[in-house]
From TrEMBL:
This is Pre-rRNA-processing protein IPI3. Component of the RIX1 complex required for processing of ITS2 sequences from 35S pre-rRNA. One of its GO terms (cellular component) is nuclear pre-replicative complex. InterPro entries: WD40/YVTN_repeat-like_dom_sf (IPR015943), WD40_repeat_dom_sf (IPR036322), WD40_rpt (IPR001680), WDR18/Ipi3/RID3 (IPR045227). WD repeats lie at residues 124-157, 286-327. Coiled coil: none annotated. Component of the RIX1 complex, composed of IPI1, RIX1/IPI2 and IPI3 in a 1:2:2 stoichiometry. The complex interacts (via RIX1) with MDN1 (via its hexameric AAA ATPase ring) and the pre-60S ribosome particles. Belongs to the WD repeat IPI3/WDR18 family. It comes from Nadsonia fulvescens var. elongata DSM 6958. One of its GO terms (biological process) is rRNA processing.
Length: 475
């Protein structure tokens, strides 16, 4: 498995000087650690935050058009064109790969489609101006939307697909920003127990941290420059902020207490922290002239950051030394989105025994399997009849990532058709082959596992009490 960088760009502005090797109208896939060019998906000009991918597809909004381009990983040309109800400004896909949400460019409307059926479950005004960002929580239960109207709204996915869109209200809303939101991220953790955090930045020169469960403002960082992009490292130790005047600003979320030497969280309790324009936590790109950072992404291990700029340059940086590792293939337009992920070889290799034909750089797919993976035409209006006559299938248990490729079909992630059969099979295997004696043995095994779990919980509780005692003594 190799780590790839997928990035796209907007249409190049008139008069912009680009290098002779810069490309235009493509989505580029590059190996992160070698810089090797893998593929260019053609005929694409997508706005910021408007390119997403699934294990089988790349989906991008086309700038200035009510149109989606759909690509397969094995084909550089457009595989499908899907007409939309209106022009969209951004899209996002759920981690479970079942739902695609879009934000209206002029109307500020929020759209929710089911990928396996194309049914439009929700379409309603959510913001007063264009939606700039859409993010799903890690468990796909929450959708966060941000807009040029400076508001941030959180929506429960269950409410959005309930079929009662007129009664749907945001789970929470935040209006502390005073200008357009230019960056949005949601961290890991549960969205119901207060573990997950939402990070946002705005042209009002602030970065804010929110509780994803209830929308409580936790921290506000005041910057010396207007932020244009935002990313958070996988461990949520640092916030990286791209700036309109060029360069990247680092905001540490933990720092060492000068007196006790212990690591403490920065901010919290609605604290406001003003950050000076110091050089220790900020650096500028090595370019002939400062250029705005329009997109950011971090590698899986959090040691590298990939920056995309207004001039179309894409640079990989080492975060320890803050030196350029390599410069990737540049685009003629501003970079709209950058995503870093693992190369999906296994999920793209056909397991059919029929005759295969050669695909692209990502593997092979035969004609039958490629047709079965096509995304249905998206509905353009909400039809209650379609919703009432349709059952929503969700993948339970193993998803595409990390699943056993020899036991799953390529389109299981779309329809969940094997879930019920798998559950029946597991139930039958549990209650068969040995009768009562086998059942007693399995019950005993489960009781032993539960006993071990209680023991681990007790040890964890003791460690927590010791840490709390030490913290209280040093406070």
């Amino acid at each position: 498995m190799e780590e790839l960088v997928l990035y796209s760009s907007l249409t190049a502005a008139e008069g912009v000087n680009a290098s002779a090797t810069a490309v235009s109208g493509v989505i580029s896939a590059i190996q992160l650690h070698t810089g090797t060019h893998i593929s260019s998906f053609k005929q694409n000009t997508s706005p910021a935050n408007a390119t997403v991918f699934t294990p089988n597809h790349i989906i991008s909004v086309q700038e200035g058009k009510a149109l989606l381009n759909v690509y397969t990983w094995t084909k550089e040309a457009v595989d499908q064109k899907i007409v939309l109800p209106e022009r969209l400004s951004c899209i996002a896909i759920s981690p479970c790969n079942n739902w695609l949400v879009g934000g209206g460019l002029e109307s500020g409307r929020l759209f929710v489609w089911e990928l396996s059926s194309g049914i439009l479950w929700f379409a309603r005004e959510a913001h007063y101006q264009a939606v700039t960002h859409l993010k799903f929580s890690a468990d796909s239960s929450l959708v966060i939307s941000a807009s040029k109207d400076s508001r941030i709204l959180a929506w429960r996915l269950g409410d959005l697909v309930s079929g009662n869109q007129d009664e749907v209200t945001p789970a929470w809303s935040a209006s502390e920003h005073t200008l357009a939101v230019t960056g949005l991220e949601i961290g890991y953790g549960g969205t119901s127990g207060g573990d997950a955090r939402v990070y946002s930045c705005s042209l009002d020169q602030t970065v804010r941290v929110w509780d994803a469960a209830v929308g409580t403002l936790l921290s506000t960082f005041i910057l010396s420059d207007k932020p244009s992009a935002l990313s958070v490292d996988p461990a949520e130790r640092m916030i990286y902020v791209g700036q309109l005047l060029g360069g990247v600003r680092i905001i540490p979320l933990y720092e060492t207490n000068k007196f006790s030497g212990s690591l403490e969280a920065v901010g919290g309790a609605r604290r406001i922290i003003t950050l000076d324009a110091d050089h220790n936590n900020a650096w500028t790109l090595i370019t002939s002239a400062p250029t705005a950072i329009t997109a950011l992404a971090l590698s899986f291990n959090g040691l590298n950051i990939i920056t995309g700029s207004q001039s179309g340059d894409v640079i990989v940086w080492d975060l320890t030394s803050r030196q350029i590792i390599r410069t990737l293939k540049s685009h003629r337009g501003a970079i709209g989105s950058i995503q870093c992920f693992w190369k999906p070889f296994e999920n793209l290799t056909s397991k059919s025994k029929s005759k295969e034909r050669k695909g692209g750089a990502f593997g092979t797919l035969n004609a039958v399997s490629r047709d079965s993976l096509k995304i249905p035409v998206f509905k353009r209006i909400v039809e209650v009849k379609d919703q009432n006559d349709h059952d929503v299938w969700c993948q339970v248990g193993n998803g595409i990532e990390g699943c056993d490729d020899n036991s799953e079909d390529e389109n299981d992630w779309m329809n969940g058709s094997n879930d019920s059969e798998r559950a029946k099979s597991q139930a039958l295997s549990f209650f068969s082959d040995g009768g009562e004696n086998s059942l007693r043995a399995k019950v005993q095994s489960l009781e032993n596992d539960l006993s071990k779990l209680y023991g681990c919980y007790g040890e964890l509780q003791n460690v927590h009490e010791q840490l709390w005692t030490a913290y209280s003594e040093n406070k």
